[in-house]
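Deviations from the work plan: none for this task. Representative record:
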Amino acid sequence: MGSLRYHARGILALFALLLPFQHATAETVEAKLPTGIIATADFRAGKSSRPAVLLLHGFLQTRNAPPMSSLANTLADQGYTVLVPTLTLGINRRSKSLACEAVHAHTMEGDVAEIGFWVNWLTNKDYSSIALVGHSAGSGQILRYAIQKSNSAVKKIVLTSLVPLYSKPQEAQDAAALTRQPGSKQTLGRFTLSYCNNTYVAPPAAYLSYVANDAEHELSLLGKIKVPAEIILGSADKTITIDWPGKIQNRGIPVTLIDKAGHFFDGPQEFDLADRIETILKTLPAGNK
Amino acid sequence: MPLWPGLQRLWPLTIRAYAISFIVLMSLIFGILSWIVEHKLDTISATANIHNTNAANEEFAYVISHVISEIKQRAESIASQDETRQQLVNPAYYGYWRDNRVRATGILPGYVQAVEMYTRQGKPLAANPISDMPTQINPLDISSFLTSRRGHYYLYVFYPIPSIEGRPDSPLLGYLGFKLDFLNAVKEEQRFSYVNPNSIHIKVDEREHLPFSQLTSRLEFTLLPNPESTALAATIKQLQQQVLPVLIGLSLLFYLMLASLLAAPLRRLSSHIDALREGQGGLLAESFTRSLPVAELEKVRHSLNDYQSKLEQMHHSLNEKNDELWTLAHHDPLTGVYNRRGFEEDWEHVRSVSSGHRLEISMLLFDCDHFKAINDTYGHQTGDQVIQAITRTLQSTLRHGDRLYRLGGDEFATLFLDIDPNLALQTAERCIEAVSQHDFSSLGIREPVRISAGLAHASATDAETLATLPKQADMAMYHAKRPGKQKIAVYDDSMINDAGVLFSTGVTNAVFEAIDTGESIEMHYQPVVNLANGEVDYYEALVRIREGYELIMPSSIFPIIEARRLEAEFDLAVIGRIEKELEQGIIPARTGISLNVSGPGVTNPKIIGKLLELGRFLDRYRLIIEVTETALITQLHQASANLNKLRQDGFKIALDDFGSGYSSLGYLANMPVDIIKFDISMVRHLDAGGRQGLIVENLAAMIIKAGYHLVAEGIETEKTLQKILGNGFSRGQGYLFGRPENTCRDAAKFSIFSKTR
């Protein structure tokens, strides 16, 4: 059974190679957010029999970052409607990953709002069956979207490489202290966030919006999810602890652990990820009404 | 030949001068060539400079366009960044971006001094733009411009940021502005090949915004040294510097070579020749032996040595000839004794070596009495034999070592050094005695042959006396030869009075001047009266020499004339004077002139010729030539021929002073004379009577009978005149008739004569 799966995956890969341009018909769509910022996303309409999928990139990345970019292509090729937005992070038509040293005035709330904007954008296009797939920090943002308010069209959330954003408690305390000072909105601080080791420049409040505190908080959020969710983790992901998949499962959320996959599911594990997501998507109803 | 006179004193030049001239010429040529090369280099450099200037302008234009292009490329890169664009949307943290983020990208080069962003309206995002960035830009003209601040040049460049990345046609979002350190920018962006970046200067005032398009017009810079030209110039310079010492070295070598190979050997040769020349007769003992380094000079040396050798041989030969000649020149060929030249040289030598020494010097002169008469009577050959006999006699009588000199004719001399005057006198006496004892009859001579001697002494310390010793000896000898004197006379000062005239420089000078010009000669005329009528028959012309107010008389004139052998010259002068006076008509008509002609004059063709010229006056005057019997006897044959020629032309010949000498009747018969003038001594004998008077009377009668006209001289009294008239004399002369005067007295004035009649 397993060998058959790999055989089929190989054929799929070959097909993908032979038809490389099928997914190149993506349309970049721009949309003005309520904040006035123009957000962009790649949109490829799929078969109506298939659900729409919103893929969200990781921390400070764009929609072109792996594994979501390749996953988007795979899914689009499979006939899924795919919307891959790039979080603006406060930048018009942002097209490149943002450096740690850049001013990060964006907030978690803003990001979650943008997810909501794009979900609404899909529903406005009459997509009634939507799956939200996030990677890393994107998974955390989708998690928060799924908790805060939900759109009925969202039938499933898939959180890959879900991991709490790393921060230093002391810095968070200092930032919190700064926010209490007058004029702190214009004040910039240099913090540690995720892989930005003491290089994350941001107003303290904006910084604090991403500081999710700790793993327990994240796990607690998982318990508050209102739509069906599934977690996909890589067995070789060094950003997570060994017990992290178990802790998630303990919250009642199914976890798929892809063997030998790293944080970005690069290499052959990329196909495993795609297979798994496709499997999940197949369980969803048709996307278009 | 020198080109101008100034060089004449330097001409000819020495080898060293030529060498130095050559070196100077070479240096000049080297200098000119160097100058030409420098000039060519300058020309090349100037051409290259023009080319390089153009290239530099192009290079600079390229550089600044490159700088602009570069900065715009970088601006585009910055503009494409999300963060950049974010500032225009949300400039809340613009300051952080401008001061940190834009630099952190690493896109901007170091020469970008400042970055500023502007809105679409040209307003800066920052309230206070940094670093002199404009507070407002014109969206319609965002061209670059240049300013100057504190000696630095800053270029401002602006770049529009489109709203959509990669879509310049999309609406503008804003502008990026850059401030560049211009000079650093051009230096960093371009490695200059022509422009010297450190020399770039732009004429732009502080705060002036110089449009970029005008930048090149305000640009000033210098060129980088052209490496090829510099290398070429350096190579040529190096070559010159290398050639110069070589040239100097070669010149020095050339100079030393000329000096040592030519100049020095030539100098040595010249010195050798100089030494030969300065030797003046005495040749160098050594020839030029040192060999010379140049073949030609060596040949000259050999030639010189050969020449010297030949010269030496010639010199020896000449010495021998000189000795022979000296002997010939200093010895008398007839007698073999020293001649006058030998005497004079010895005398000079004696004077020079004895001067200042206490040395007694005696000079002895001999003279044969009446030698001319002997010579003429017995012939020259006999005369010569007499001289030889006298010589042998004197030589045998003189001491061994005494030199005998034949001064001329019958005159001999000898010198005695450092002997007692008495011994000298005795020697002289022995000589006279020996000659008188010599038997000359073997030569056919019947008369006794005698010699007279004059002796003079002097001490060598008495230079003045020594100088006059020959004169003293001469005076002594004249003294000895006087009739009735001893045959030997020793000079004493009393003799100087007798010979004063003879040795008077003043009289001598007057005589010489008279001979030369004839002007000082003054003729005095004494009448010779025709005793038949008392009329002046003719005048005897008697010579005087006028010296200022004084007259020099014949007694002073003729000793000098005879001593100097100037008889012929003096005769000519006198004849010339008489000729003039004849021409001037001073002599009364129908009278005549008698002229005294000396012995040598009678035989002198020139004088005879002159006398014959006087023949043109014979139609107006009687012309009588008076000669002495001594003059006639000396060269009787020639004299007779000349006198006969005169007689044939109409002259009459008078024998003067008859009776004062030998008065040989044998001679008289052969003499071509018409008139006999009895000497005053004869007239006095006649006047005195007695035997001598009788002889004279008979002699006069005999002469008259032989057909001669007889003239009596010295008639001073009427008694004498009576005597003369009684003895048949046809002419008379004497003070009774008139003294010699410078005018011719008229005959009518002789009243005394009329009384005697």
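Chain A has a mean pLDDT of 85.
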